[in-house]
Amino acid sequence: MSNRITLKLKEDKKLLSIYFTAGYPSLNDTVQIIQDLEKNGVDMIEIGLPFSDPLADGPTIQESSTAALKNGMTTEILFNQIKDIRKSVSIPLIIMGYFNPVLQYGVEAFCKKCQEIGIDGLILPDLPLDVYQEDYEATFKKYGLINVFLITPQTSDERINQIDSASDGFIYMVSSASVTGSKSGFGQEQENYFERISAMNLKNPQIVGFGIKDEETFQQATKTAKGAIIGSAFIKHLTANGANSVAEFVKTIR
Amino acid sequence: MNYNADEKGYYGEFGGAFIPEMLYPNVEELRQNYLKLMYEDSFQKEFNQLLKDYVGRPSPLYFAKRLSEKHGCKIYLKREDLNHTGAHKVNNTIGQILMAQKLGKTRIIAETGAGQHGVATATVCALMGMECIVYMGEIDIARQAPNVARMKMLGAEVRPAKSGSRTLKDATNEAIRDWINNPVDTHYIIGSAIGPHPYPDMVTRFQSVISEEIKWQLKEKEGRENPDYVVACIGGGSNAAGTYYHFLHEAEVGIIAVEAAGKGVNSGESAATSALGKVGIIHGCKTMLMQTTDGQITEPYSISAGLDYPGVGPMHSHLFKSGRAEFYSATDDEAMAAGLELSQLEGIIPAIETGHAFAIFEHKKFKKDDVVVISLSGRGDKDLNTYIDYFKLA
């Protein structure tokens, strides 16, 4: 069977992907949030595995991660919560987190568990390209996992091409030089960057993340890119309106 | 065995650069240039001139007669406390500000625990006329008030880190986030021998002036370059790295590290990484760090803000794992008692961080003829309030 991410990327539509922190607002909201996201037309989900020191994240995801850990979330608990997720959910599921918790679980054990559950890919921002290729690529592939790399406006063309050839799903295109949740709206600089990447004709489609918060930014981001990821704005919505308010949020995007 | 960093920044299995792609261009630029730049004649000339005329180097190697009598060995103190700004930290900030200039950066950020590195960074920024932002944990801001005031007086902005344990690790997170948000004009001056490659190696090389001087100073005093032991306290490990550097491959020199045991290694309130840590990733490098079985980084504790860090530099993890260095840990009480002893036997009030190194005599017995060089990494002025509270001096 082809990876669900690969299949989804072939669909003739702009993809809406949502990130949320597992174990937030409450420890056991995870499954309900995933199901509601799919029910309301979201195309792909990044399940955030919370980490104590999320370097690349702004205050919103940082605080939701701290709260999730305080709620008692662990790697093992997350795996238990979602062990039967494929009985009810069919869209691609990606686990996004930092490398240390994966390393402590054991990279192979982690990947194996992901395959058993039906996780399609991983995004580990602090697992660099060269370490991945030397030490872990074979393991990720053995368990059918797509590893997603990030690029930013500062990434050189040479490096982008390197990342493109190492990728076999999509490229996570960070919209601006920032941690998550910090910019409001896109300006000319982003437009130029989106165009530049689009003109590179990469083999992997790009999905834009960081700074997408509403319909307008979603439209802007997906003008050239295949899709966009919303994280902090969704978490803020959950904080204000509770875990049962998923439908409300998704409707504001499309 | 090689105890220095290899080309990719690994010390044995430790080190590397585990950074998000957002930091890649900055770190890569530094990696490609740091060795070339720092060994250019003009760089070395300027660096050495500033160390001499501005910092006041060489720092004395002082034979501590009364302390030696008390502990039955020959104790020499490497007086980094006499440097401008009061600690070894300035050796590195001088080097890195010159590096930042060569790279065309105009804005400097730093993290600080005890405030010594923050002050040393604010100082060199004032010297070079560069914008300076220092991240410091909220708790450390409260317990190191004099250093906060010094940084402000030097023209730096001190930004509180309000997340997590609100100490050094969180200040480091905030500084890294700032760097992600400001990738073009900003250089991040890391204060310890931690972080992604090339930081541990670069900081170590700038601090290595400490052991370089010890060698010729000891030759003058004892007729030999190599002591029997070098001793330093370790948080992230920059003074230790500088103190050990030129002795790493001198097999007859024993290397001793003293970590902060806080209220006791097994008290749950400790920062003794070698005893409590496991291999993991923190702040961009693979090293020993204190963490839960689930890989969440735990909150350390030490009475000294400068040692209150859950990891240790990758070089030190390798020295520990390979058995090249002996690791000990000293409790708050032992460090405070050692600080008091040094004050009253030698007339030198050390930083509480440094007090940990002097607590070695609680843990190890030296022979009468042993020449033991201790890194007196910082002076205790900044800690007076803690000393006053602890010893009820007021």
TrEMBL record, chain A:
Which controlled-vocabulary keywords does the entry list?
Answer: Amino-acid biosynthesis, Aromatic amino acid biosynthesis, Lyase, Tryptophan biosynthesis
Residues annotated as the enzyme's active site: E46, D57
Q: Name one Pfam family in it.
A: Trp_syntA
Quote the EC number: 4.2.1.20
Domain of life, source organism: Bacteria
The pathway entry for this protein reads as:
Amino-acid biosynthesis; L-tryptophan biosynthesis; L-tryptophan from chorismate: step 5/5
Q: List, alphabetically, the InterPro entries matched.
A: Aldolase_TIM, RibuloseP-bd_barrel, Trp_synthase_alpha_AS, Trp_synthase_suA
What catalytic activity is recorded?
A: (1S,2R)-1-C-(indol-3-yl)glycerol 3-phosphate + L-serine = D-glyceraldehyde 3-phosphate + L-tryptophan + H2O
Enzyme class per UniProt? lyase
Q: Mention any one GO cellular component term assigned to this protein in its UniProt record.
A: cytosol
How it assembles, according to the record, is: Tetramer of two alpha and two beta chains.
HAMAP family xref list: Trp_synth_alpha (MF_00131)
Return the similarity comment. Belongs to the TrpA family.
User: What biological function has been recorded for the protein in this entry?
Assistant: The alpha subunit is responsible for the aldol cleavage of indoleglycerol phosphate to indole and glyceraldehyde 3-phosphate.
What name has this protein been given in UniProt?
A: Tryptophan synthase alpha chain
Q: Which gene encodes it?
A: trpA
TrEMBL record, chain B:
Q: What is its EC number?
A: 4.2.1.20
Cofactor requirement:
pyridoxal 5'-phosphate
Alphabetical keyword list: Amino-acid biosynthesis, Aromatic amino acid biosynthesis, Lyase, Pyridoxal phosphate, Tryptophan biosynthesis
Q: Where is the Tryptophan synthase beta chain-like PALP domain?
A: 56-378
EC class of this enzyme?
Answer: lyase
- Work out whether the entry's keyword set contains Chloroplast: no
- Residues with the modification N6-(pyridoxal phosphate)lysine, per the entry, are K89
Gene Ontology CC: one annotated term: cytoplasm
Annotated metabolic or biological route of this protein: Amino-acid biosynthesis; L-tryptophan biosynthesis; L-tryptophan from chorismate: step 5/5
Pfam families reported for this sequence = PALP (PF00291)
Q: Give the superkingdom in one word.
A: Bacteria
Q: One GO molecular-function annotation for this sequence? A: tryptophan synthase activity
Q: Which InterPro entries match?
A: Trp_synth_b_CS (IPR006653), Trp_synth_beta (IPR006654), Trp_synth_beta/beta-like (IPR023026), TrpB-like_PALP (IPR001926), TrpB-like_PALP_sf (IPR036052)
Reactions performed catalytically: (1S,2R)-1-C-(indol-3-yl)glycerol 3-phosphate + L-serine = D-glyceraldehyde 3-phosphate + L-tryptophan + H2O
Entries under PANTHER family matching the protein: TRYPTOPHAN SYNTHASE, TRYPTOPHAN SYNTHASE-RELATED
Explain the purpose of this protein.
Answer: The beta subunit is responsible for the synthesis of L-tryptophan from indole and L-serine.
Q: Mind telling me which NCBIfam families this protein's record contains? A: trpB
What binding partners and quaternary form does the record give? Tetramer of two alpha and two beta chains.
Give the similarity note: Belongs to the TrpB family.
According to UniProt, the name of this protein is Tryptophan synthase beta chain
Q: What is the lineage of its organism?
A: Bacteria, Pseudomonadati, Bacteroidota, Flavobacteriia, Flavobacteriales
Gene designation per UniProt? trpB
